Structure formats: structure tokens, C-alpha cells
Amino acid sequence: MERFVVLLRGINVSASTRIAMADLRDLLGEAGFAEVRTHLQSGNVLVRATGKPEAVAEKVSAAIAKRLEMEIDVVVRTAAELRRLIRTDPFGTIATDGSKYFVTFFSEPHDPEAVSRMVASIADTDERVHAAGREVYLWCPDGIRNSALAKATMGKQPAGLVATVRNWNTVTRLMTMVDDPS
User: Checking phi first, is residue 96 left (phi over 0); if not, alpha (psi -120 to 50) or beta?
Assistant: First the structure.
């Protein structure tokens, strides 16, 4: 069995997407996942399972739909993928506040044209963007709320593409939890 980081998109942001983390742990355990752990209330889950990340995402989504009657988008990364993402941190020398440094996790590689639009959106700001594989790193030194970059990144995605954002503090905490399964 391999460790996976499961990222649920958009839960606990409105009344219609409320999921208690204890309930989520229970339902994923009942669905056959092992060592289920959650972090915060925003849909960060660690599990042990067999199979590819895409299959894990489908199984998590199906378990939530069956038990809670909610359609939740899911993005999954292996522990090795998360470790590589942290190791290749493109803004480690300038991103001084993990709460203002973000990673957008995509279900598929992102569109190069969309990345070009993101870069153009921040031409007159201190914000930075770096695309790598299925992730986009975002440095928003003034926060995400009024960020031109965040608006360009978190807009409507093409059909079938799932994107979810986590700040650097959460990303690194998830890696710590993967490395220390107790």
C-alpha cells in the first residue's frame, strides 16, 4: 500500500458542502482506505491505498457521493509527488510567508496558454507564478484576496479539469504528516 495525499475541492465553504472530518475519516475507512488522517477542515486527507492516484481520486469521490450525496472534486498526489513538489520549490528564496504562498493542484497538466495569461495578469505586481507539471506555484505577497494572479488561476476551469489550491503551510504540513504516520 502506498501513501496518498487526497485534496478535496471546495468543502466546508458553504452549507451545502459541509463535511465533518470525523465523518470523512469514517466513510473513507469504510470504503477500504487505511490509515486515514485529516488536516484542518478544508479537505486535506492522508490515506494508504493501492492503485494509481486517479483511481484513488475516483474511489474517494464515489464514496462521498454514495454516503453523503455530494459531488466533490478530488485531486490526489502520491507522497513522492508531494515530496518532489516541495523539493523543487521555485520561490523558496522570495516567498517569506507560507500563508501567502500557494500551490494550485490540477488533475491534468495545465494549459500553457492559461499560464501565459496568468503571467500577463501580474505584469505590474510583485506577484510570481511558476508552472510545473500539474502544479502552479503562486506567490501573492499581499495575500490572495485581491490577487490578480489568484483570480486568473482560480477562474472557471475547462470541463473535466479539477483544480484546488493549498497554501505552502498546509502543503509542508501534509508532507510532515506523510513522513510521520503516527
Answer: alpha
75 shares a domain with 93 = no
Q: Any idea which residue has 501534509 for its cell?
A: 174
d(CA 79, CA 110): 21
176 domain-assigned: no
CATH number at residue 153: 3.30.70
Domain boundary among 55, 81, 107: 81
Cα–Cα distance measured from residue 116 to residue 136, given in angstroms and rounded to the nearest whole number:
12
pTM: 0.90
Percent of the chain scored above 90 by pLDDT? 59
Per-residue model confidence as pLDDT tens digits over 32-85: 999 999 998 889 999 999 999 999 999 999 999 999 999 999 999 999 999 999
Write out the residue range of the structural domain in which residue 62 sits. 2-81
Residue 110 has pLDDT above 80, yes or no: no
154-159 contact pairs (CB < 8 A, 24+): 154/104, 158/111
